[in-house]
Amino acid sequence: MKIDLHTLGPLVALVALVILGALLNSAFLAPANITNVLARSAFIGLIAVGMTFVITAGGLDLSVGSMAAFLAGITIIAMNAALPSLGVNWGTIMLGMVVAVLGGIAAGWLNGALVTKARIEPFIVTLGTMGIFRSLVTWLADGGTLSLDYGLRTLYRPVYYGGIGWLTWPIIAFAVVAVCGEWTMRHSRFGRHVEAIGSNDRVARYSAIDVNRMRLLTYVLLGLLVGLAVVLYVPRLGSASGSTGVLWELEAIAAVIIGGTALKGGRGRVWGTVVGVLILSLIDNILNLADLVSPYLNGAIQGVIIVLAVVLQREKRTAEER
Amino acid sequence: MKRRSLMKAAALVAAMGMGTAAFAQDAEKKIIGVSIPSATHGFMGGLNWHAQDTIKRLGETYPNLEFVLSTAGDPSKQVNDIEDMMATRNIDALVVLPFESEPLTAPVKAVKDAGKFVTVVDRGLSQEGIEDLYVAGDNTAFGRVAGEYFRENLEPGSKVVVLRGIPTTLDNERVEAFQKALEGSEVEILDMQHGNWNRDDAFAVMQDYLSKYPQINAVWAADDDMAIGVLEAISAANRNDEMWVIGGAGMKEIVKRIMDGDKQLPVNVTYPPALISSAIEMTALNFVSNAPMTGRFIISSQLITPENAEQYYYPDSPF
């Protein structure tokens, strides 16, 4: 019962935030605001679901924000380049989507291979690729901004802004990925292996789990989800620059930790991550809507929430050990 | 732009007037180090482009000048760059756009104490009197010019929202000047939040403004990167006809739209990334001409309107 309360902690915090938001400003619960906040959360949300698997397996990925910027860059370049031969149609956009997703898989594979085959610490590998991807996008953009052709943008736009009623495509994609992610973590062999590797990789190896392959797969999965996030991100502003996706990696990691996944690995909770993502974007939204504190302090409030979440986790672990 | 062609003309006259005699007399190479922040934002991207462009052009014009360019992502890297320039290239002059004023003050002072010519660009050092030449945009005018446009072009009772940049003294100067220009008018500033000179952040903040306020007549986005995010949020909410947006710094896409007479983007305020060109050219002139090149050179912020937009349009620049 006591443990349940801790598990439900993030959910309680989320509900409390929603109530607080509704009390502070009546516009908070307006459908347009809910749609905005959920759709905005989708990028970090997709990435954070993938990050949950990487962290649960005992890894870490600091490169996802830069990777997203780089993928957005090459996606835009590919679509602009294909424009003269293919024209303004969904074929060109599909090509861009394929570039984003395949590029994500390749980038994730690169990170994973450096971690598992070259045996370098994930922190170091992804710190390196973080710099590489960020420089590459700045270089591709010549220090400025890569912009998608206007005609293509108009056609592509509904992928971010459209959807079924108020359920826009980013929200739907986030929900589907979250449900699949939760199922994979809880009920699939892959999910069980990921938890086993994260909690003790030697024991996992003795149990005939292909540790390196599983670990590589978590990075590939994360790369794929970053690619998917880019597919939804590009139609929003139709541009990519050196300042795209700055600090997304830390937001994704924070969401995973707030959601109750252990940073040391071994215990992953995808639904918790989803709650964590929503908590982070709700804090931003509420602070913008309410003028509660000086905007200089927004970061501090997020910081307090992250630290509190980890403190709650630690209490739980000591309770288990007793 | 006018200023740039003037500078070019001055450089040309100086070069011709001095002729070959001067070069022969002073045949040894002069090395000018240029240290600027790296291109992580539209404005800095433009600044990097103008720096490279100017260096290339001056290198061709003056064979006895050599340039060393380095770009840094943070203040400590910039300090290292400057130390390297002193130690390995033995530079004769330094053109520096300090990433932050405080941490760069002592290293730049060391360069000056070694007897080099120092040009400081855009952000002043925290101690006065170090630099020989100071070249900067006018942050107060940047805010004031925008504020005056709002004051003159909004009905009494109009409501305005503001997107601020990254919390810095530079941002404070601009915002204070903007507020001061609106003081005593019937225009109300509803809200000011930080969009961090970033498209995505500005998009999110503007979405929240649109949920919060049923009436908004105009937006001061204070930067063209942020203006793009703001415009996208407005069009997603289908409120294009209700408000116009003023950005700043003269991004080419925005200038183009002003040229085309876009109603949503009536004007823009300059804060030219080409100010680095002025700084480099004036530093170069210190070595190739007899004209005095010390002092302060403040590039004023101009209002870009559909009538004059063409002269602020650089189609080749990334910004």
In short:
Chain A has 322 residues and is mainly alpha-helical. Helix content of chain A is 77%, strand content 3%. Chain B is 47% helix and 18% strand.
Notes on the structure:
The complex is a heterodimer of chains A (322) and B (319). In chain A, helix 2 runs parallel beside helix 8 (169-187) and helix 12 crosses helix 13. Chain A has 14 helices and 4 strands. The longest helix of chain A has 27 residues, at 90-116. Helices cover 77% and strands 3% of the residues of chain A. By secondary structure, chain A is mainly alpha-helical. Chain A has helices spanning 2-24, 31-56, 64-86, 90-116, 122-140, 150-156, 158-161, 169-187, 189-199, 201-206, 211-237, 248-258, 270-290, 298-321, and strands at residues 145-147, 163-164, 167-168, 239-241. Chain B has 319 residues and is an alpha/beta fold. Chain B has 10 helices and 12 strands. A 6-stranded parallel sheet of chain B has the order 2-1-3-4-5-11, with helices on both faces. In chain B, helix 2 (42-61) links the parallel strand 1 and strand 2. The model of chain B is unreliable at 15-25 (pLDDT under 50). At the A-B interface, helix 2 and helix 13 of A face helix 2, strand 7, helix 7 and helix 8 of B.
List strands and helices in order, with pairings.
The complex is a heterodimer of chains A (322) and B (319).
Chain A: H1 2-24, H2 31-56, H3 64-86, H4 90-116, H5 122-140, E1 145-147, H6 150-156, H7 158-161, E2 163-164, E3 167-168, H8 169-187, H9 189-199, H10 201-206, H11 211-237, E4 239-241, H12 248-258, H13 270-290, H14 298-321
Antiparallel strand pairs in A: 1-4, 2-3
Helix pairs in contact in A: 1-13, 1-14, 2-8, 2-9, 2-11, 2-12, 2-13, 3-4, 3-5, 3-11, 4-5, 4-11, 8-9, 9-11, 12-13, 12-14
Chain B: H1 2-25, E1 30-37, H2 42-61, E2 65-72, H3 75-89, E3 93-96, H4 101-113, E4 117-121, E5 133-137, H5 139-153, E6 159-164, H6 169-182, E7 188-194, H7 199-212, E8 218-220, H8 224-236, E9 244-246, H9 252-259, E10 268-269, H10 275-288, E11 295-299, E12 303-304
Parallel strand pairs in B: 1-2, 1-3, 3-4, 4-5, 5-11, 6-7, 6-8, 8-9
Antiparallel strand pairs in B: 10-12
Helix pairs in contact in B: 1-10, 2-10, 3-4, 5-6, 7-8
Transmembrane segments (chain A): 42-60, 67-84, 90-110, 122-140, 160-180, 216-234, 246-263, 270-287, 293-312
Membrane topology (chain A): Multi-pass membrane protein
Protein name (chain A): ABC transporter permease
